[in-house]
Amino acid sequence: MTGLIGPEAVVLGIETSCDETAVGLVRGGIEVLSNVIASQADLHARFGGVVPEIAARAHVERMQPAIDKALRDGGVALRDVDAVAATQGPGLIGALLVGYATGKALAAALGVPFSGVHHLEGHIFAGVLDPGIEPPFIALVVSGGHTSLFAVREFGTYDLLGETLDDAAGEAFDKIARFLDLGYPGGPAIDRLAKRGDAEAIAFPRPLSGQGLDFSFSGLKTAVVRHVRRAEEAGERAKRSDVAASFQEAIVDVQVEKALRAAEELDIPTVVAGGGVAANSRLRVRLAAEAEARGVRFCVPPPALCVDNGPMIAAAGHFRLQRGESTPLDAPADASLKLI
Ligand code: KG4
Ligand code: ZN
């Protein structure tokens, strides 16, 4: 199969599956030329979560300025873009459609190939953007919508080893943050507060730890709520920094344990983490330390490439187009697109 783009192609990547209007440029599949993320957190904060209709409308307003800035930051003229990639799914359909339709229109106007990218394949490619990591590796993808462990034996082939049976890790962070009145988005707020707390203050459960490779976070969430309520009933106020730190430690413990056990059981000594929760400072430190102790190579992109971003979509699109796979311009966006 011949590639539809050259190996050094510049790909413009667009991501609008949720509440970030994100655009980036990547050259040669790994060199990030720009990464523009116009966050909508301010718009959704007062609702305590993402409001789909507001997200879609805000993408419409922010899309063109984000594209202009990505081109400017990358020092690339629009006519020098060799291909366009955009998230095809999964995600909020109204939000997805803005970036997806924009991407197609740009590709058609420029006369270049288009790639509709699976959001999780994007998160996996974020992990290999800089260091040039090659399969096989274990991918831990932890975000607001997903918590999945994959064995990536070669790019484009993903074996699902485990996933969450209930809440995604980021969802658990967001729900507990809301419960503790820390605002939205919850992950970064808990990350910050936990730095002032004692991670061993409260022994929260480590759901499914040591059992299989699936995850479950709803029991942990209930345990946190019960702990805080019990303190209130006793006329006390649970120390919120200790609650945040102990909750975060429990959620991190489970992820570290499962990712490294997967590496050991499958004899694949490389772990790549991605997704918004991989921006968590404690998860990064713990995964790095435990991986080193077990002789496992660990790679996680900088936080701006863990959260939803354009370069990860450009990198995955580059891979697909190099393989000769483009997405027809009449292919629909899909809110529940499957990776496997
Ligand atoms: O990948 P992402 O930007 O969007 C989805 O695909 O869902 O992930 C967003 C999630 C949110 O739940 C957010 O609270 C969480 O990632 N997150 C974090 C941190 N930064 C973002 N969770 C824990 N610690 C962080 N520092
Ligand atoms: Zn994501």
Question: What does this entry show, briefly?
Answer:
The chain is α/β, with parallel strands linked by helices.
Explain what you see:
- The relative contact order is 0.19.
- Helix 4 packs across helix 11 (310-322).
- Strand 7 (147-154) and strand 8 form a beta hairpin.
- The longest helix is centred in the C-terminal third of the chain and has 26 residues, at 240-265.
- This protein folds into two domains: 10-128 and 306-322, Nucleotidyltransferase, domain 5; 135-300, ATPase, nucleotide binding domain (Nucleotidyltransferase, domain 5), CATH 3.30.420.40.
- 43% of the residues lie in helices and 19% in strands.
- The strands form two sheets. The chain has a five-stranded mixed beta sheet, with helices on both faces. The chain has a five-stranded mixed beta sheet with strand order 8-7-6-9-10, with helices on both faces.
- With 340 residues, the chain is α/β, with parallel strands linked by helices.
- The protein contains eleven helices and ten strands.
- The mean pLDDT is 96.
- It has helices at residues 41-45, 52-74, 93-110, 119-126, 169-179, 186-194, 218-233, 240-265, 281-293, 303-306, 310-322, and strands at residues 10-15, 20-27, 31-39, 83-89, 114-118, 137-142, 147-154, 157-163, 270-274, 297-299.
- The structure holds 5'-O-[(R)-(carboxyoxy)(hydroxy)phosphoryl]adenosine and zinc ion (ZN).
- Residues 119, 123, 143, 275-276, 308 line the site of zinc ion.
- Zinc ion (ZN) binds next to helix 4.
Annotation, overall tally of beta strands:
10
- What gross morphology would you assign? globular
Q: Tell me the CATH topology of the largest domain.
A: Nucleotidyltransferase, domain 5
Q: Report the average pLDDT across residues.
A: 96
Order of SSEs, N→C? Answer: EEEHHEHEHEEEHHHHEHEHH
N-to-C terminal Cα separation, in Å?
A: 22 Å
Bound molecule types: 5'-O-[(R)-(carboxyoxy)(hydroxy)phosphoryl]adenosine, zinc ion
Residue fraction in strands: 15-25%
Top CATH class of the largest domain: Alpha Beta
Question: Mind summarizing the main beta sheet?
Answer: 5 strands, mixed
Oligomer: single chain
Structural class: alpha/beta
